[in-house]
Amino acid sequence: MNDMSVSRDVDTGEIKMRARGVEVFYGDTHAIKSVDVDIEDKTVTAFIGPSGCGKSTFLRCLNRMNDTIDVARVKGEITLDGEDIYDPKVDPVQLRAKVGMVFQKPNPFPKSIYDNVAYGPRIHGLSTSKGELDEIVEKSLRRAALWDEAKDRLQEPGTGLSGGQQQRLCIARAVATNPEVLLMDEPCSALDPIATAQVEELIDELRTRYSVVIVTHSMQQAARVSQKTAFFHLGELVEYGETGKIFTNPDDSRTESYITGRIG
Amino acid sequence: MANSEHIVSSFDRDLEAIQARIMRMGGLVEEAIAKSARALDTQDIDLARTVRAEDKAIDKLEEQVNEEAARILVLRQPSASDLRTVLSVFRISTNLERIGDYAKNIAKRSEAIMDHPPVEGASSSLRRMARQVELMLKDALDAYIQHDAALAQDVRSRDVEVDQMYSALFREYLTFMLEDPRNITPCMHLHFMAKNIERMGDHVTSISEQVIYLVTGELPDDERPKEDRTPYELGA
């Protein structure tokens, strides 16, 4: 039948992250209004919605990136494997190693390719020897599908790579700390179609190991890479469900208007 | 939602244009059904030839509809109700084109049997059967343009009557052929015509199902009643 869900396995695996009644305020602005969502393990979840709908803000709650913004206040509960990530005992730096992030614009450190990837494992003390660190770097670059292109130039600066390679380097950097969840905030919007295709291919591989959450403005991209899709509008989570259903037969008229490009 | 306008207004125009073409195709096909049955019933050889000639216009429209639908897929990458509109257009145009072919075949066969003496009552019952299918098609197309799933469901349930008419004719022609071998040639043709009309009904049913899919997002999954028992009949 004309249903995109046919060809894709929805891994209705365990719930990796759970959000309940999440509210975010920027000063007086109520940016996120009581969002409940379950992020599944080994699944790509896409957040879609118009600019300013709160999808990136919500994404940044998942690894406490909003802590770095003074006027931002987060209420409600978010758990990772059942543990409250906003518990005062949780070290946000440790949390961000488990819940890694890749940004819109590739932002490699002004260091060598090797040091970019080795940075996280070093500060988190994940290796005890040079050999072990070498292994982590190779494994991470392989997982980010960059090893073949980078293996002969590991000491060259990461900023010398092409845009698409830089983005995969950032993914390798995020993967190097052994994360459980990868957050991606429009990871392809600064990339050309070929680099975009490579990153999408990579996302599909990454989901065999991690739970991936991606914010994207490209509806086609969301439809291609994700198994679950959440539609945000004006700070609310309007609809959340299987990607095939959202894109062929959504329940909410606001979702329908948005994905079909109508004035909502 | 589905009735409000796209931000890109040319997308709306594309979708409207392609649906208008489907409706034009539908109109021509309705006419072809009526004309082919009339040509048979009134032994009008000119009308039969007209039906055959006009089928080319239907084929041409189908080609255009498919080209436009493919263009919309590539340029607009439609989703949700827009996607269903484009997918249903592909299917409905195929169904309509097939119905047109059956009408053309009826016209061809009515030319072939014009030299034979008419078999008693046969052509008028075929015309009634064709009328039934024509009305079903009209309602299916109305249901399509009005997004009326209930009407589509109603059309779907009426195909059983066409099947019953076909079964009755099947037995009738069998009897005629047994009675007099001279009836065999015209009755073979008449039987194929009845079968053509029965198949038209199936295509109209398929159009109705596409309407239901278009409106609700799901194809009906219940088993449709079927009354064509002829595959199991061994003769009188």
Structural account:
- The complex is a heterodimer of chains A (264) and B (236).
- Chain A is built from 10 helices and 10 strands.
- Chain A has 264 residues and is an alpha/beta fold.
- In chain A, the strands form 2 sheets. A 6-stranded mixed sheet of chain A has the order 6-7-8-3-9-10, sandwiched between helices. Chain A has a 4-stranded antiparallel sheet with strand order 2-1-4-5, covered by helices on one side.
- In chain A, helix 6 runs parallel beside helix 7.
- The radius of gyration of chain A is 18 Å and the shape is globular.
- Chain B has 236 residues and is mostly helical.
- Chain B has a single domain, classed as Methane Monooxygenase Hydroxylase, Chain G, domain 1, CATH 1.20.58.
- Chain B is elongated.
- Chains A and B meet through helix 8 and helix 10 of A and helix 3 of B.
Labels describing this entry:
heterodimer, A: about 260 residues, alpha/beta, six-stranded mixed beta sheet, four-stranded antiparallel beta sheet, 10 helices, 10 strands, globular, disordered N terminus, B: about 240 residues, mainly alpha, Methane Monooxygenase Hydroxylase, Chain G, domain 1
